[in-house]
Each structure stands twice: as structure tokens, then as C-alpha cells.
Amino acid sequence: MNPRVLPAIALVLIGGATLNLGLFGAPLHTRSEFFTTWMALVVQALPFLLLGTVLSAIVSQIKLDLSRIRWVPLGAAAGFFLPTCECAAVPLTRSLINRGLKPAVGYAFMLAAPAINPVVLVATAVAFDARMVAARFIASFLAAIIIAWLWHPPIPATKVHHHGSFSATVIHDFVDAASILVWGAAVAAFVKLFAGVGGDYSFFLMGALAFVMSMCSEADAFVAASFHVPPSAQLAFLVVGPMVDLKLMALHAAIFGKRFALRFAPLVFLVTMVMSAVVGALLLN
Transmembrane segments in this chain: where (predicted)? Predict the structure, then answer.
């Protein structure tokens, strides 16, 4: 998709939300709260988003050779040292597998890198506290390893597309991710005001929201913190989103094939939800 299309989509969605607020007779203070929440989420998240895209672009320009790594946990651990967002991790993983990296190791890296890299963990610490940082790291790390062990080698992939120079990569990734952040923050502000995510089903609703909203992992902590739900439900949002969402399903289909995407997503969603529940019960509740 052309990156210029995404800001237009974001503006249409925000305009639609604003129009709905007016049409349904929302009072002025409600509309003000909506825009205050939306702007706060965007402004808080953009510095981390920019840092993440710059670091990701640096990694994309370096010739990496991980062909000697055969142990799946090492693939997940490599995600900590290679700060790539989920959009960059998918084609990078395909490239590493093409150069001889064991597929299971590549999948562990692809799943772990967007969730446990330093940029994401620092953003999580700013939005939450040390307990949530530890819970996110442990749940995401274990989920990546388990999924990689359970999954089978991929169906032959399609050609990987590169963005070119360093500056082109930064601009493309930042515009793409920032556009998703804008509409994601708007949806989060709207849901926070009217949907009332909470109650006995908040854990499952937050997991579903993470899948639908397709937030960038460098920014999702601020959105999760804006919901007044139990910590385990916030954790589900933070663990599920970087590993499986609508945006990632499209990327998986483009890079690994449609059959891969349709079979991979349910497994990832199930494992991430289970790990979020287990780790959340042990560390957060």
C-alpha cells in the first residue's frame, strides 16, 4: 500500500468519529475529552515510534549472518538486540531464512523482536512500571519460543520488497507506522469513552482489540495504559498485538503466502492469550 494513502485513511476515520460524536449529540466536554485523549496518545508515542523506525532502518542496512544459530531460544533472544518493529521483522525474517537460518529460529526472532526490544521495553516502563515490563518480556519471550516449536516450515514465500536507502526506509516505515498509530489512538479514545471495555470479559476484549487495532509495538503501551482494565488484560493487549494483528496477517500473506497467514494467526493468538493469562496471574494480579 502507498504510504500516502494511510494518512488519508487516518483522517477519514478521525473525521468520521468526530462526525458521529456530533450526530449522536455528544456534549462538548465529551468531544473535548476524546480529542485530548487522542492527542495525548499520539504525542506520547511518536518519539518512541521515530526511534524504533530509525533503529530498524539501521539494522536493515547491515549484512547479518545468523545462519549458525540453531537453538530456538537464541532466535527469540536475538530479538532483544535487533530493535525492529513488527512490519520490518517479517521481511527481515524471510531474508534470514533464505540465507540458511533455521525456520523455527527465524519465527522466534520474528515474533520476539517487536515485543522485547529495548525501545518497546523503555516505552512500556514509561507507560506502566517495572512489573509490567517484566511481565511483557517474559510472556512475549516464552510465547515466541513455544510458537516457533509448534509451527512447521513455511509454504514457499513471495519476493521480499525493500525500501532502498536508509532515509527512504526511515520515511516509509515512520509514515506507515505513524498513520496506523493515528487511527489506532483515535479508536482507543473512542472506545475508552463509549465502549466501556471492562468487566469479566475485559481480558478477551483487550486481546481482540490488539488484533483489530494493529498498533505499532513502540506505541501500544501508551494505548494499553489508557484503558481502565485489570493489569492482565492490559498485558494481553501488549503481548498479542506485536505478534498477530490484521496488519501482520497482510504482511504474512505477502511474504510467506496466504495459507501461512491463515494458519499461523490462530496459533499465535491462542498461545499469546494463554501466556498472557499465566504470566499475568503470576506477576500482576
Answer: 35-59, 71-92, 104-126, 133-151, 171-191, 203-229, 235-257, 264-284
